[in-house]
Amino acid sequence: MAKKRGAINDNKSQWPPLGWEVYFLVNENYQANYGINYIGSRDIDIGLPDYDSFRQIESFLMKKMSFEQLSFRYVKYLNYDTGEEISEEIAKKIPLHILIQLYVDAMIPQYRDDVKKELGFIPPDEPLLEKVFGDSSYRRTINIANNVVMVPSPDVLIAMKLNSIVNRTKDHKKIKDICDIILS
Questions:
Q1: For the whole model, what pTM was predicted?
Q2: For residues 125 and 110, is the Cβ–Cβ distance under 8 A?
Q3: How many domains would you assign to the chain?
């Protein structure tokens, strides 16, 4: 039986999901103009204020949501047709058009020299998250699956997208970022 899908929220903390905010920001107008939904992201990026938050989200994702850790990323495999969670072993055996690899990428504003000792890996950093966590004028809340979630304000989100384009190595991700910026 498929496990229930839901937003990443432990009812104690609010971590800004960055990867899907563009979708929620532009979809209504995009749908009105083109008659279809805007393309969502394949990843869910979550900004975390500190190392303790990393440990909390790791515990939540792995113990409560059945994700597996891959360095700073967490992955869950789903059957596209049924929505059922499947093991990595089964995922290796089914056709790619039936497989959904749902990734959650966690990042922090900046990391210290002891990050590898503390977390066991070096997560990506996004310095603009400092503003999101430090000043309420740089964030807003949106409702995702009946959960109120903190997200960067549109201007900060666009600045983050501009930061990410510079380091993108995959053309399709650059193109998606450019589309996100134009439509935001």
A1: 0.75
A2: yes
A3: 1
